[in-house]
């Protein structure tokens, strides 16, 4: 299966220019590989230089917008992986996703926000490879006032696409 085709379609629908370099906003690296695992740093719903969805979920941001933010953040993380290795076919299994939701104190639908990201993973990698563990938590604030931030741990195939 060619994961890149599914990725390209979803990324295009979300407004990504997949040829554009994914920029980071600090003194860190967005991806570290260690012992066959790729650790991808927290990604916010940024396309180019613009954070697409900002504000507190449950106040300024509704559930559907927050799910979209989770989708954009996921595509952004996968774009980093694809740019680093040249293809998403390097993915053996999505292992873990941590979702941080910038939300009102009364908001309780963190898992439903995370479902937006999970759906992207299933569309690209299928149910078996895309199945993952997940933590969804509320946060008082996130970088750049983003509504969602997501990080990943992904198992890589032993044969890397160079």
TrEMBL record:
Signal peptide: none
Organism domain of life: Bacteria
CDD domains per the UniProt record, alphabetical: YjgF_YER057c_UK114_like_1
SUPFAM superfamilies noted in UniProt: YjgF-like
Pfam family for this entry, one: YjgF_endoribonc
Annotated ranges, domain Endoribonuclease L-PSP/chorismate mutase-like: 37-147
Name of the protein described by the UniProt record: Endoribonuclease L-PSP/chorismate mutase-like domain-containing protein
Protein's organism: Acinetobacter populi
Lineage summary: Bacteria, Pseudomonadati, Pseudomonadota, Gammaproteobacteria, Moraxellales
């Amino acid at each position: 299966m060619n994961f890149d085709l599914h990725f390209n379609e979803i990324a295009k629908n979300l407004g990504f220019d997949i040829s554009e370099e994914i920029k980071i906003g600090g003194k860190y690296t967005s991806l570290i590989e260690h012992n066959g695992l790729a650790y991808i740093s927290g990604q916010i719903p940024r396309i180019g230089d613009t954070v697409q969805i900002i504000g507190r979920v449950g106040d300024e941001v509704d559930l559907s917008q927050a799910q979209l933010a989770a989708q954009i953040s996921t595509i952004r993380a996968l774009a980093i992986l694809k740019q680093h290795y040249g293809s998403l076919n390097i993915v053996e299994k999505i292992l873990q996703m941590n979702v941080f939701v910038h939300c009102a104190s009364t908001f309780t639908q963190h898992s439903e926000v995370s479902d937006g990201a999970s759906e992207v993973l299933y569309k690209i990698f299928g149910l078996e490879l895309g199945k993952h563990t997940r933590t969804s938590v509320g946060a008082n604030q996130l970088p750049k006032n983003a509504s969602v931030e997501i990080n990943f741990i992904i198992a890589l195939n032993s044969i890397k696409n160079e």
